[in-house]
Amino acid sequence: MSVPRRTPTLAQQVWLLLQKDLRVEMRTGEVVATSLLFSAVLVSLFVFAGFSTRKAASEGAPGLLWMASAFVAVLVVTRTFEREREDGAVTALLLIPGASTALFFAKLVYNWLLLTLVQGVLLLLVGGVFSVDWFAHGYAVAVALLLGGFGLCAVGTTLAALLAAMRLREVIVPVVLFPLCVPLLIAGAQASVAAIRGQNSGAWMVTILLFDLLFVGLGQWLFGLALEGAGGGEGDSE
Amino acid sequence: MMSDKLSWMAVFASLAVLSALGVVFGYAPVEASMGIVQKIFYFHVSSALAAYTGFFLCCGASIYYLLKGDRRADVVARAGAEVGVLFCTFVLISGPLWARKAWGTWWTGEPRLMLTMVAALIFYAYVVVRSIGGRTEITRRICAALAILGVADIPLVHFAVQKWRGNHPRVLRNGGISDEMEVALTAAMLAVFSLFATLVLLRIRVGMAEEKVERLHRLATARGNDIEDRRRSPLLENP
Q: Which of A77, A176, B140, B219 is close enough to A156 for a disulfide, judged by CB 3.0 to 4.6 Å?
């Protein structure tokens, strides 16, 4: 009580926030359960839409895998701040000076972990339905999914925070997220195509990495700026 | 005074558009293989440039707004985005009309086509968020962020689609047009850009007037809500 405690470092802050979210998720399983169910429904829709019975169905499998990832990412990220908003915890979080960076990275990593888990299941489902052996020539598909998922979550977390107060945000988030992620989806699908054919997917991986770096940087900056309104002080033209 | 200048600009833009039409149809030769449809090219290319100018204007003004909080920058950003979207829509309509004749198909997976489509989608979303969000400080900040994300995305989209596929006619870089066509293209550029500038300035004027009305309204009702509003984070708002 008497001695003021040392301010935790950024990594410690991120870890604390991440732990809190993971603990809640492990106790309720809400996001994981619904996302997994959604993936199963989605893959069954691909089957009923006739994708799996076409000639050269496996050619289209990487594209569908990435499309499904993008859908699941929307499902995961739109709920990023739901719990905090419901219970008013976000007020307390935003009161901590400089906490927005930690909050951004904690939410980003949290979303990424959940998305990665679901992507793993998607990989199995899509691979099974389309008879694709993703790992016939190494693990490039998994690397692409991990890196690409991070980029999807970087954009998604930023948008979830920005649009948290927006009416119709369940529609607005995908409407903004998908166009922004077009380069990522192209690069991811092409990297996966190259990977299952045993070709070099290095250039596409670099594209994904560039996307990740750009949007983690921009996202972190805009997240803080938009939440705290750094420029909103006396400079305003009143 | 300002309205006078703008009226003259509007008159100039109208004359420029009319004379560009004259030059395009009266002076420039009919292209051998594509025929009359090729005339779309002059306005298509100029409008594409105008659309991207609008988007970059929006992004620049948005950065300024986020850093300085100057409402006038926000008005400029909004004008750039809205007029940019208008020209981008024209590009996306005129492009397929031309492609149908030149390539025999309305739509292909061609890089610049896909790039423009993605840019249009991003800025359509910007305009939608603007109108759904209403005139609040949070919406202004959200839209500024969206504009920055969108424009930062454009080079990446360009790179990805370029690497993926490519066969857009590289007319300008290869010097594939005659002198008369070049004159027509210059005329069309001048026309489209004067129209673009007029529309942007008009939209800015409307935006400034809206700001003024809002300020007066606030003074009249003396609620001072905006000061409170500015301090809030989107996470704390109720949808």
A: A77
Report ipTM (2 d.p.): 0.84
Question: Pick from A183, A230, A231: which is nearest to B157 by CB?
Answer: A183
Residues in A closer than 8 angstroms to B71, CB to CB, are 236-237
Query: Whole-angstrom Cα distance, residue B166 to residue B164?
Result: 7
* pLDDT recorded at residue A231: 37
- pLDDT for B237 equals 66
Nearest to A227 among B129, B150, B233 (CB): B233
Q: Which two tokens stand for residue B25?
A: 């149809």
pLDDT by residue (tens digit) across A1-13? 555 667 778 888 8
**Yes or no, beta carbons of A218 and B149 under 8 Å apart:** yes
DSSP letter for B234, please.
G
Cross-chain Cβ contact A81/B235 below 8 Å: yes
pLDDT digits (tens, 9 = 90+) for B64-76: 998 888 899 999 9
| Residues whose CB is less than 8 angstroms from the CB of residue A13 and which lie 6 or more positions away in sequence, other chains included | A99, A102, A106
Question: Which residue among B152, B160, B231 sits closest to A207, beta carbon to beta carbon?
Answer: B160
Q: Which two tokens stand for residue B145?
A: 């962020």
Give residue B224's identity as a one-letter amino acid code: G
- Chain A residue nearest residue B152, CA to CA: A214
Nearest residue to A183 via CA among A160, A203, A199, A157: A203
How many domains would you assign to chain B?
1
- pLDDT band of residue A56 (cuts 50, 70, 90) is low
Angle between helix axes A140-162 and A57-77 (nearest 10 degrees) is 30
> Which domain does B40 fall in, by range?
32-233
- Give φ, ψ of B35 to 5 degrees: 75, -150
Tokens describing residue A142 = 């998994």
Q: Is residue B17 part of a domain?
A: no
Position B1 in a domain: no
Q: What is the pLDDT of residue A207?
A: 92
In the A/B pair of chains, how many CB contacts fall below 8 A? 147
Alpha-carbon span B148 to B180, nearest angstrom: 39
CB contact under 8 A, B71 and A236: yes
Instruction: Flag whether B144 is in a domain.
Output: yes
Identity of the residue numbered B47: S
Closest CB to B67 among A203, A214, A231: A231
Residue B127 has a CB neighbour count (10 Å cut-off) of 16
Residue B168 lies in a domain: yes
SS (H, E, C) B77-140: HHHHHHHHHHHHHHHHHHHHHHHHHHCCCCCCCCHHHHHHHHHHHHHHHHHHHHHHHCCCHHHH
Chain A residue with the nearest C-alpha to that of B120: A179
Contact state of B161 with A180 under an 8 Å Cβ cutoff: no
